[in-house]
Structure formats: structure tokens, C-alpha cells
Specification:
The chain is of the alpha/beta class. The chain contains ten helices and eight strands. The chain is globular. About 45% of the residues are buried.
Length: about 270
């Protein structure tokens, strides 16, 4: 299966979006990666037995991987518009989203305009101010020029020297990103987490789940998400890389549960 690129409508024009698509069912399962990552974050989905009944789509957000830059500058609202435009090009009966980190915020914003959404799974998706501590707030606090000239390469070096195996994969994707575009996305993401009500948006989407690694600090979300939180043991912020078998097994189980809940609600 090859990676394809298509021009997708975006604010101010069009943007090239690199994507990978496998058609094999009436229900479409879409994976959205995090800040500075790439569609390859979810390569394991294409071989996961638990997802065998779904058509699968992964793609690079604008400013990332093989995709282009947003014509009018990068922010997560514009990225969300690109998501809805991209998904308009794929047939499905039901739509399910699995969104990691920054992708959780972009996915939630986009999902408000997706009437056929049947389930939403956030994988440590950004929701509140405390979720911006790992990278995005540090990027947003720099000027665009400082980040382009120093901050971007400084973080690349930090990832290169990190003992975390997931960071060794992350740095390969991070190097492919456009620094100025990343800066715009970071500033927008921090603003949304600090001043907008992403938890309310998430709750308005209907059936959802929140997946996190056992090594991640998520206690601040327990009063918000309550019994919709599911843990992957032995994993950090990248459970799909740290524990892929357990991760995709859990995703499959939660998708089945969300589908059952949807059928019960429509009965």
C-alpha cells in the first residue's frame, strides 16, 4: 500500500495532504497524530487483527511529514477545516476517530462538523492547560523567529539524546516538520487549552473514550472524564509505540463498545 497525496481545500486556498488509505469495510476509522509527529505513528493499525473490519485512514497534518503548509498560516482551527474537507472525500457508513495528543484537540474541533461520527477516542489528547506542558507551551512561549533559528533544533537534539525509545521515533518525524508552521500550531493549541472549553466540546460529541499510558500524568483529568478513561500498562505518552499490541486490542474493544452504545441509542 502506497502513500498518496491529494490537494484539499483549506482557508486561503488548498494544501497537499499525504495519506494512507485501506478500504475493507463500510465503517471508516481515522487516526490523527500528535504535535511534530506523522501518520506513521499509527502504522501498526494496518496489521492489527482487532481492526480488521474497518477501512483505515491515516494522514499527515499540514506542516507535518509529506503534507504542505496552510496557505493563510497555521492554527488548529484551519487544520480542523482541512480534516473535514479531507474526510468528505472518503465514503463510509459510520465514522470513528482516534486522535493522539494535539490531534485530540484538532479532531474534537473537526468532529463538530461530522454528522456521521459514531465514536471518538482521544489518546492523551489535549484538553486543558496542563496538557500543554510536554512541548507545545515551550514552543508557544518563543517568538516564531527564535523557534525557527534555535528552538526547533534544540528540541531535535533533546529528542536525539532521550533514552525513551518512542522519542527516537518521534525525532524522525519531528525533523520533517515546518518550524514556522509548528510554532503557529503550538500557539493556537495553547490558546485553545487555556481559554476554550475543549472538554465541553468532547462531551458534546457523544460516545467517547480517553486512552492513556500508565506512566503519564493524567490525574488532573479524572474529575472531568470520570469512567471514560482507559489505561495501557507499561506505556507513556505514545502507547501505540510503547505497547502496540495492547493498544490496538484496547482500541478495537472500545470501538466495539461505542458501536453497541450507538445501536442501543438508536433502537
Amino acid at each position: 500500500m502506497t502513500v498518496e497525496t491529494r490537494a484539499v481545500p483549506a482557508p486561503g486556498g488548498k494544501v497537499r495532504i499525504a495519506h494512507r488509505y485501506l478500504e475493507r469495510g463500510n465503517d471508516l476509522l481515522v487516526f490523527m497524530h500528535g504535535f511534530g509527529c506523522a501518520k506513521e505513528s499509527f502504522d501498526g493499525a494496518f496489521a492489527a487483527d482487532a481492526l480488521a473490519g474497518y477501512s483505515l485512514l491515516t494522514f499527515d497534518f499540514p506542516e507535518h511529514g509529506g503534507s504542505g503548509s496552510l496557505p493563510d498560516g497555521a492554527d488548529i482551527e484551519s487544520a480542523a477545516e482541512v480534516v473535514t474537507a479531507l474526510l468528505d472525500e472518503f465514503d463510509r457508513r459510520h465514522l470513528y476517530l482516534v486522535c493522539h495528543s494535539m490531534g485530540g484537540a484538532i479532531g474534537a474541533i473537526a468532529a463538530q462538523k461530522l454528522p456521521d461520527l459514531a465514536g471518538f477516542i482521544s489518546v492523551e489528547g489535549n484538553l486543558v492547560a496542563a496538557d500543554c506542558g510536554l512541548v507545545s507551551r515551550g514552543v508557544a512561549e518563543q517568538s516564531a523567529d527564535d523557534f525557527k533559528e534555535r528552538g526547533f533544533s534544540d528540541f531535535v537534539q533533546w529528542l536525539e539524546h532521550s533514552p525513551d525509545s518512542s522519542h527516537q521515533q518521534w525525532v524522525q518525524w519531528y525533523r520533517q516538520c515546518d518550524p514556522r508552521g509548528l510554532h503557529g500550531l503550538a500557539r493556537s493549541l495553547v490558546d485553545w487549552c487555556d481559554h476554550r472549553n475543549l472538554p465541553r466540546i468532547l462531551s458534546s460529541l457523544g460516545p467517547s473514550a480517553y486512552v492513556h499510558g500508565s506512566r503519564s500524568e493524567v490525574a488532573h483529568l479524572k474529575s472531568i472524564l470520570r469512567d471514560s478513561m482507559y489505561q495501557i500498562d507499561g506505556a507513556g505518552h505514545f502507547p501505540m509505540l510503547d505497547q502496540p499490541t495492547a493498544f490496538y486490542r484496547l482500541i478495537g474493544a472500545r470501538l466495539d463498545a461505542l458501536a453497541r452504545n450507538g445501536r442501543m441509542a438508536n433502537a
